[in-house]
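Q: Structure for this?
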Amino acid sequence: MSTRKGYAGFVSAEAQRIHCPAVRLRGLEKHFPRVHALRGIDLDIAQGEFFALLGPNGAGKTTLISILAGLTRASAGSVSVMGFDVTKQYRDARRSLGVVPQELVYDPFFTVRETLRLQSGYFGLRRNDDWIDELLANLGLTDKAETYTRLLSGGMKRRVLVAQALVHKPPVIVLDEPTAGVDVELRQSLWNFIRRFNSEGHTIVLTTHYLEEAEMLCERVAMLQDGRIVALDRTANLLRAGAERRLLLDLDTPDLPEFLRPRLKGREGNHYVLDLPDYGDLEGILAQLRVAGIPIRDLALRQANLEEVFLKVMHGGQA
Amino acid sequence: MNSGFRTLLYKEILRFWKVLVQTVGAPVLTALLYLLIFSHVLEDHVQVYPGVSYTAFLMPGLIMMSVLQNAFANSSSSLIQSKITGNIVFVLLPPLSYMEFFLAYLLAALIRGFTVGLGVLLVGLFFADIEMRYPLWMLVFALASGAVFACVGIIAGIWANQFDHLAGVQNFIIMPLTFLSGVFYSIHSLPPFWQSVSHFNPVFYMIDGFRYGFFGQGDVDPWLGLAVVSPFVALLAGVTLMMLKSGYKLRH
């Protein structure tokens, strides 16, 4: 009877786990001897999300990731991965997490394949060669499998780190600046690969300095500054709220027509820079210009990008 | 239960096995040089125990010194290299307990120490008739003493921030303790003051007990030696485990 109870309890815990956030941070604080690195972070990242953690150097991104990975201990607060507390249930928490570290680290004693076999073994996976081969193929490392990692170029070493983080097919994958110093081609193939994982249900948490990457890939963004979250929203919402949309017009007329004056924000060269919060207004503007017989020499739309939003947030504005 | 312990142990063994010339060949050669020089100079002048040639007397000391120094070298150099290159994260990210971590580094260090010790013994057999009267005593002292130095190696490897720190431990603690422990002489040949000083050196009991296993003779009773060495094993294993559990310098 008692075993059946235990079994039932186990199942219900598993059932809860299905609905738990992939990452949950509550009141997370981290004091280093001279730095207050994290000042009360609350954050939930849902399962299956592609999430970006942005912030200037020293904002606390890497500290946050280190705490998530058990490499650093929190001063206060709680952290869980797939519902497992990272200190009390560290084995399950670490099995649920794959981390691509920021530094290009490698063990000079081993080849790429040995490195991946060892990493599998650390997670209790003895015969993992089929998956290792698949990882190698997908990351373009097949012909480097028997090469010592130390002999590889920086970009290749980065791929090995990605493969190492994925040997145990973790439900949550954290990439800390994965594309720093990596060429465009690898960036593309890396993101395609990570996107595939994401589409298969893996949660991706990313820190990057390339904001266009975050904008392109991530559904949701948190911006960190001085150990605090200063913006947290869906990427689309941040873009919409954070920066104005502009219409740039070069008109074959000496003066800006009366009906456009309220929109005028300034001039850039021959272009009038006009406020255009709603793209739906564009058609009306064009029609009025046609009616007024004013030819358009050039027209451009300028959309907010994450970089502008980021800069605005970092300089004290609200997104 | 498939745990990462086996793999970590295997990796730690593979690490020194891949560079066997440096990690085993070199220390065996060093011991051989000591053997050649000291036995050449002293063979006809010194007889410590009746019926035991100086070369034979020297062998257990050299073997033990090799076991101790290499047990220390293995755990300390592995950890500092991993820390300095940053690849220590590879073993900190997986679901390994601090106990598994401890045992893997401890056992790998013992295996390296024993491999070198065995090498020195095999080489020594060419130079002297060596009896091995009480193999169990030999094993007990080799294990206990190797474990102490493996632990010192783990502690030093975690504590050190650079290779210089380790060299300091090696040069100012390990070397004096081993050289002044009766590897090359019986402490009975020392003046009374230095004899009593030697009794405060735990390495003296390690080597003396190990030597007792060979010849059935020593400067002190092997049970006394064991009574001195065992608490050191417990103490250093305890300190090492506490450091690992607290995450000192590994999980800040």
